[in-house]
Design a protein that fits this description.
With 208 residues, this protein is an alpha/beta fold. The chain is built from seven helices and six strands.
Length: 208
């Protein structure tokens, strides 16, 4: 599978690049994608929620009334969950929400997400570039040249580029990520993918 290479002005350079069929040419596996997104969302949860149960409430353990003859339910102490200020029954406790996912499944999910974006025509390959200094206005101009300044975009680079990252950070709907750190949620969340030539080479290396 071949794709045209564009420059940052949004014009074709006359070059084309071979896209790895093992990534962009696969049949998308929706269940693998679902599992990868589920794992990502689960890992965003801190799991630090905690409610005090009756054994953790500050208060007297004195029996507040006699066992029988009051016409009401028996109560052992003021910390009874039925009373205001009492402990909570089966309240939330700190826990981890992490989900284990095999490397092969995550690899299939990432390839499926990239293939789905390619099939929808939302992938653009651009030649490698960088900025001498962080410049949000220049980055925004580049997005406008691809008619992507008002949609969610993800720029995938071959390696971490600090200047590009800082340039795109202030663009509300834009994100910059190196190919090695790419995850399925990022790919699906973006409406358009801008992938550099070096990122294509990195992805090909990861799946070869």
């Amino acid at each position: 599978m071949k794709a045209d290479v564009y420059n940052i002005e949004g014009q074709k350079t006359g070059k084309s690049i071979e896209l790895p069929d093992a990534v962009f040419g696969v049949e998308p596996n929706e269940h693998a994608v679902y599992l990868a997104v589920k794992q990502y969302n689960a890992h965003q949860r801190q799991g630090t929620h905690k409610a005090k149960e009756r054994g953790e409430i500050t208060g007297s353990t004195r029996k507040i009334k006699k066992q029988k003859g009051t016409g009401t339910a028996r109560a052992g102490s003021i910390k009874n969950p039925l009373f205001k200020g009492g402990g909570r029954v089966f309240g939330p406790r700190p826990r981890t929400y992490s989900i284990k996912l095999n490397k092969k499944v995550k690899s299939i999910a990432k390839a499926s997400a990239l293939a789905a974006k390619m099939n929808a025509g939302n992938v653009v390959v651009i030649e490698d570039f960088t900025f001498e200094a962080p410049k949000t206005s220049t980055y925004h101009t580049m997005l406008k040249s691809f008619e992507s300044d008002n949609v969610k975009t993800l720029l995938v680079t071959g390696e971490h580029d600090k200047n590009l990252y800082l340039s795109g950070r202030n663009c509300k709907k834009s994100e910059v990520a190196p190919a090695s750190d790419l995850n399925v949620y990022q790919i699906l969340n973006a409406q358009k993918l801008l992938i550099s030539e070096s990122a294509i080479a990195k992805i090909n290396e990861m799946y070869s």
